Amino acid sequence: MRNCSSTRLTKRSVEIATKAITYIDRNYDQPITQESLSYDFNVPVRILQAAFQKLVNASVHKYLEKKRLEAAMTMLEDEEISIKEIYTKVGYSSQSHFGEFFKKHTGITPAQYRIRKTA
């Protein structure tokens, strides 16, 4: 007997998740939640989340964090871009929150990362 409670992914839900991924890739500097994506793409949160998990093996939140971290790391390698400019470009409104986020994921501060990469 088929389990009716499991989330079945349709071609449409995978297409929507793919569009949501593209949206995140282009707009990671904006406030984005799985709820806002669900609303914008007119798909239930649980379907969006399941499709994300299948496509990128991560939740919407984790995927967004990954994109922001990758972008920040790339920008930190350019000494012409200030850390303040970087944290706003990756969607953070305060340097302290950005610093906590960055250190949580890398084990070092943004300034330490910059020194290591530009030395």
Automatic annotation (TrEMBL):
It comes from Chitinophaga filiformis (Myxococcus filiformis). Keywords: DNA-binding, Transcription, Transcription regulation. Residues 18-116 form the HTH araC/xylS-type domain. The keyword Nucleus does not apply. InterPro entries: Homeodomain-like_sf, HTH_AraC, PchR_regulatory_protein, Tscrpt_reg_AraC-type_HTH. This is AraC family transcriptional regulator. The keyword Kinase does not apply. It comes from the Bacteria. The lineage of its organism: Bacteria, Pseudomonadati, Bacteroidota, Chitinophagia, Chitinophagales. PROSITE patterns: HTH_ARAC_FAMILY_2 (PS01124).
